[in-house]
Structure formats: C-alpha cells, structure tokens
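Bug #77: duplicate submission created two jobs. Keeping one. Sequence:
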Amino acid sequence: MARLCIASMACLTVWHLQRDTTEDASQLRKWLVRLSGRQMKHKVESTAPALLAGLEKLLAIDDLLKNEDLEDILSLARRVLPALFSSG
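Kept job's structure:
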C-alpha cells in the first residue's frame, strides 16, 4: 500500500511539474531529463516517463547525500573506477 501511495505521489508531482510554466520548473525538468538518461525528440523538452525516471534518480541521490559525504563518495569512485572518473 505504501508503494502505491509513493508512486501516486510521484505521478502527481510530475503532472504538476509538466504544467508549471515558471523558469525554475523548466530548469528542473531539464535536470530531471538529464538524470533520466533519456533523449528527447527535437523540440520536445520532456516527457512524463523521463521526468519520473529523473525524479527517481534525484530522490536516490538526495537519500545518499543525507547519509554520506560527497567527497567520500567521489574519492571512492575515483579509486575503484578510475577510467570513468579520469579528467581528460
């Protein structure tokens, strides 16, 4: 039951975000699409599935950063996955 409530809340949040015409909402939509990893068709800013996927990742990031230090996360990732985090 709790999962259904959370899913419904996420859907309602995305529904409102899609209809929000403010600059802040537009920027958030762009970031969520970027986090989702989805590609949008030409002249399509976002889709509900892309926003939901991005929101899921944003919430996971938020949860991680509430419990872990960003510098510790990046340091570990750079040591364990150096090819993905090399500068150049």
